[in-house]
Amino acid sequence: MSDTIILEVARFNPERGGEPSYESFEVPLRPDWMVLDGLNHIKDQLDGSLTFRWSCRMGICGSCGMMINGVPTLTCESLLINYAPGPVRVGPLDHFPVVKDLVVDLDDFLAKLQKVRPWVVRKDDFKPPREFMQSPAQLEAFHQFSLCINCTLCYAACPVSGLDPNFLGPAAIALAHRYNLDSRDQGVEDRLDIVSQHEGIWDCTVVGECSVVCPKNVDPSLAIQQLKLTATKEWFKSFLLPRGKH
Amino acid sequence: MPQYTQYQPKAYRPRMSAYWYLDQWRYLRYALREASSFFVAYFCVLTLVQLAALGTSATRYAQFEACMGSPVMIIINAIALAFFLLHAITWFNLVPRVAMRQMLGRPTPDAISSGPNYLLWFGATVILALFFLGVL
Ligand code: SF4
Ligand code: FES
Question: What architecture (CATH level 2) is domain B21-100?
């Protein structure tokens, strides 16, 4: 096997505009190198102007997500050798505006995240004496959905996100579900109002790719379908008991 | 001397192709699943036509049967059946995603959620097969 591999990397210069193009670089093919190591090699040794995000190099910070051969992937968790003999095509995440090369603009995503009130909402002034006790079963109810690292791979995999820029999207909805299931939270009604709008859960057509690409097994598609069930039950309740509290 | 200009970011905003579902097999598979609804509707209409022919006269029903026996209709119905199976299996497999996640305080296994659908389907198929074979 060759001891090098070709990385075809997307380049986009915002000062020049136009369409992104791909530039090829030959990088060492080491058995322990991730795609991110290949990109860092380019930046350090071949072209310092290549721009991309990364931080933890261990699948925790969620900043190194890119399209590798058309699939949204964390570059710090993808062994370069798995793509041998190459070439490996690395592009910015789909469905996001590209700021430069491999860096995408996340402002819209962060605004959507904010919308779903991703924190524990209390409507009373209850102050737990020490900490707020939770049983293992109560923790288990939302634990899976709390593992999200905001890498936005799910948005890049979701065609609905690409077709409807207003779609709240998988991660934001999964996070809403995470807090709805939290025994300490009292904000379910507020969040249901937000996620039940057309641009929320009802925009999802169950493509399911968000859950396939999620590196943390959050399964956002499951969260969305479960919220559809909850929203439908609430709608029926309000329909049958219009004056009752629901 | 380098010429500096004030930075004016012009982000590139990608647009999705109208044929995005042809780009990758995983999206094409989804598109086929959605398209399968069309064939389900087709079978519903076909059943209504069959019932109408049955209720009209024996000649009419014989005409319907002759039409269904033509090679073109056999090919169309074979394709429709393939899509019908795809529709049933993909949607049955999605049932656990909208069913109760907890039963008696424990996570519900996927087989418990989707299993009854397959059992009903199998049962109905066996009854129909026995009926057509003249056992019932
Ligand atoms: S749900 Fe998964 S894919 Fe989506 S942002 Fe969170 S960790 Fe990433
Ligand atoms: S660099 Fe942090 S997740 Fe990859």
Answer: Up-down Bundle (1.20)
